[in-house]
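Exam revision sheet. Question 4 asks you to relate a sequence to its structure. Input first:
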Amino acid sequence: MDSVTVARSLRGSIGMLAMDWLTAPSTFAQGRDRGMPEGMAAYAVGRWGVLGDCPVDNVVGAAFFWHPDTVREMVAAGRAVISPSAGGAVWAEICAAWGDEHLAGFAGADRLGELLEAVVVAADPLNAPLFVGWRDAVTAPPGPGRTFQLAQAMRELRFSRHCVAVQAAGVGPLEAILAGPAPFSAAMFGWPEPYPDVGDLGDVREEIEAHTDRLHARDLDVLDGAERAELRELAKAARRWPE
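Answer key, structure tokens:
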């Protein structure tokens, strides 16, 4: 199976599989129990904490779609409680625990992990700092937890490619959000109204998604056609598990 087809498919399988846990109530509760702050301050030193104890503008750049001032406020609140490096490590442990629970009994978990690891290890780190942070945070032993950590790293890899595609199209983060499938996310990401009219960006948005697929496809070239087809089917099955 060709790489672009698989890259497009993973947008909805790995992308969604490795999304729900980031803002799940149980994730925040576990973080709080381990010394992390409340709410989105935990997200700031959790998901973005894998960047390490870096300048806040590094986080602003990696967060990309979030309003810069919102990122700075979240990071400041989070770092007042726990360091980013410590918060990122906690978040990675919670990620593995989610996988151990939600992929328990999934027969393809180990094989999915093997295929994801092959891609994650070989992927070009250029313009993908958040991916690199999550790649290096994969520390769980083989099993559902490690597979889920790899899925999270893979999700950040596509996210990084998507950010490059948005910039290449000459579109700003806010405009990309408003022209996309979830324009309501603009408020969640801290962008204040009034919003610009993006009615003329429909075709541009489609090209951004296609460009993202092409960029991410290069990451999948480390697998042969049969392995890519296997990855596609296992990722779809994991997303549906348990049926």
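Marking note for examiners. Residues 144-168 form the longest helix (25 residues).
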